[in-house]
Amino acid sequence: MNVFLTLAFLFFIGSTLGWVLELFFRRIVSKGEWINPGFLVGPYLPLYGFGLCVFYLLSQIKIDDRIIVILIMTATVTALEYIAGVIFIKGMGVKLWDYSNNFRKY
Questions:
Q1: What band does 98 get if pLDDT is binned at 50, 70 and 90?
Q2: CA dist 50 to 7, 13, 24, 85, Å?
Q3: Which end of the chain has fewer CB within 10 Å, C or N?
Q4: Prediction pTM value
Q5: Band of residue 66 on the pLDDT scale cut at 50, 70, 90
Q6: In the chain, what is the greatest distance between 2 CA atoms, to the nearest angstrom?
């Protein structure tokens, strides 16, 4: 029960703080316009919550080499974001993020 409560708390904190950080990032990038980064009703982004829970669970694994831990965490969170993108594009027909128009083509 304690692990469930810890993961639920981390999910809530990660989802909410991720939404707040992305809200302010989009405000800065869009030059003063408030853009809601979420697709749900409410101030949270579940992807950040899942990411924080994955970080917590991976931190419980006892590995002596910190570089290996960082590489495992990086690969796992990258895979999590990729899987979420595929689920939304293929399963729901929604493209949550698109970087194709952010770069100049020469």
A1: low
A2: 9, 10, 21, 14
A3: C
A4: 0.78
A5: confident
A6: 56
